[in-house]
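Recall that a protein's primary structure is simply its ordered list of amino acids. Everything else, from secondary elements to tertiary packing, is in principle encoded there. The following example makes that idea concrete.
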Amino acid sequence: MGFLLRVVMNTLAIVLAGSVIPGIEVDGLVPALGAGLLLGIVNAVIRPVLLVLTLPITLFTLGLFLLVLNGLCFWFVAIVVNGFYVAGFWSAVGGALLVSATSWVATAFVSDRGRIAIITRR
């Protein structure tokens, strides 16, 4: 349930990126849902392998290469999914930043079981 909720959050973040960042276009909800699902799979399977392979350059650039890596993963998803277009590299980096920030904030409020976390005071 938590994975499905994160896919929905990625989908909404991709729609938001398509409306805010120039150079990113989403033709509808179905391509955005496909892009959200594929982005989740890419981030879970391919990105860790790329992180290990590019560790020396990431350390040399003090972590800034991670922005490039995120942009490339985002751009790859746009190449594979019909109806989801990214015009260039900087649009991909901006879209990846927006989707990452949105996912990070949303994940802070959702537990692994798919429940919305409620912050209580004691």
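The CA atoms of residues 7 and 36 lie 5 Å apart. Residues 29-53 form the longest helix (25 residues).
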